[in-house]
Amino acid sequence: MTPSARTQAAIELLDEVVAATRSGGAAADTLIARYFANRRYAGSKDRRAVRDLVYAAIRRAGEVPASGRAAMLAVAEDDPVVAATFDGSVHGPAPVQPEEVGAPGGVMPAWLAAELDASGVPVDSQAALIGRAPLDVRVNRLIADPDLLCSQLDGEPVVGLPDALRLPAGTNLDPFAGQLEVQDAGSQIVTLAAKAVPGQAIVDLCAGGGGKTLALAAAMGNEGRILATDIDRTRLSRLAPRAAKAHVTIVETRLLDPKHELEALAAWQDAADCVLIDAPCSGTGTWRRNPEARWRLTPDRLGRFAEQQRRVLEIGAALVRPGGALVYIVCSLLDAEGAAQVAGFLADHPDWTAESLDLPAGSPRGPGWRLDPASHATDGFFVARLGRRC
Description:
The protein is an alpha/beta fold and 390 residues long.
């Protein structure tokens, strides 16, 4: 592909991303994969270059751009090399017309910037939310040596996390399947709030594909019981093969029927040493990986997430034994989903208390703990550990 053809491909993909944002369609990375699956002639350098152009345009536009061309014109305003590709060549974009302007720049929609500022994430820290994320992995100590893999992969240890490595972008992890799990350092840190030890009975209530489930199993030395549940069949189905590769044998998966979760979990009521809830949320802390997600969020959608969070907190609380703990996690920096959500739960449940946390990175926020990209070089998370009185 010529440089101009790459720019035109990025424009076409951005049109798809904008349309998907407005209709609730697929994420940008999925759309990019589909696009190139139908264009086998594009080599790896072409795919990488187009992908970089797409994400540069997404990161530059705070609001949803009018079109893919407007988004790419904005990139061209800052980059003369990209501007030169608007040359009208056979496979390239048409020349820029005098009346054309690029999409307005910005970090995020104004209402979200105000919400984050009110949640203690000031405007001068918000740009870090859409920066590039590093490649972090968790070494599976059950079958691998972190020091050995660190040297083999030219990685850097992450301070305070003996099983975490930060690797060069693009590192091929295929030969290390089972030995490594791609997991942001922040995700590994908040999982430590479970204080998992061998022999415990733990429920991972919103397990998804099982990243935190496998981290819990490793912390438990593969001794005890973990019940991993979710209402999403596709996501949960990924856990069993991942567990097999990781040599994890203590995990049972269970698909739950929405609104009938407690019926399926009757045997676990008042029985778990710890329930971990990685709750559905806005994902404001993961925009570094999915920057177009900030275009999808609306006040109404945020309100629906808050309702879901209240519900899963009630479900999780019913499973914790007296003296046990509930660990609530969201990959969000909004107080409505984090500190305020937990404060509301505690106000309604006098038999529960917030326990203090001292994690390798982060800082206290309300009744819990928070990490953010600007201050801690991780994805953004809020976590609280709540203890049930005996």
